[in-house]
User: Fold this.
Amino acid sequence: MIRKIAEMFRKKHSLPEEALQFNCAEQTGTSWNERANIAAELIRKAAFLDSTRWLSIADIGCGDGKLEAAIAPKLSTFTYQGYDLHPQAKRFLQLDIKNDPLPREFDIVVLLGVLEYLPDIQPVLRELCRKCRYFVVSHTCNPIGVSAEQIERRNWITLLSKEQFDAELDKAGFINLDDVTTSNTKTTVWLCRGSLSEVVDYLPGSARSLGH
Ligand SMILES: C[S@@+](CC[C@H](N)C(=O)[O-])C[C@H]1O[C@@H](n2cnc3c(N)ncnc32)[C@H](O)[C@@H]1O
Assistant:
């Protein structure tokens, strides 16, 4: 039944068939939009920390590219490049983050809902840390109410607690600046400083309180 509904969604939205293994039939759902909005808010904070006028943003595993629309009302000076293993639109570039290096450096690299599908996240995190000033990443740290069978059906391979994920970020060289958890408490989104960032003092919530 669930498979049938997913297939109907795929046909209606011209999704590549392979996108279904990454649960993209659910990509218009509330929790996916909330995750993108949290990420956009953290990007706005990163922009506030940075004097660069135009920010280059790479969204890896961009899916339908909903992040670009979430950033637009918050930031006027940015360029957005979506990458995906199975691009859903011509403007997105094909990239397998498991095997391919990111082709260039970016001010901000984003990875939302992707690491759950990768068996070994450390090499990916290390590669991305080298290529960005700021990193925005999500992880399902608290899959409450999701049974082992559902986890298997969703093809999730890596599920770490918040403490374990924090340790992975630290090991890869990132400095954690802020993190926000979704309203259903399942997913956390981090803002980190990557290797290309200058050292700037950061107080969580400072961008909002200064009205930017
Ligand atoms: C759960 S969806 C999230 C999509 C989007 N980030 C969002 O939040 O709406 C995971 C996306 O990651 C992509 N993906 C999975 N493995 C990938 C890989 N190794 N390299 C690049 N993209 C990948 C899938 O094709 C899919 O579009």
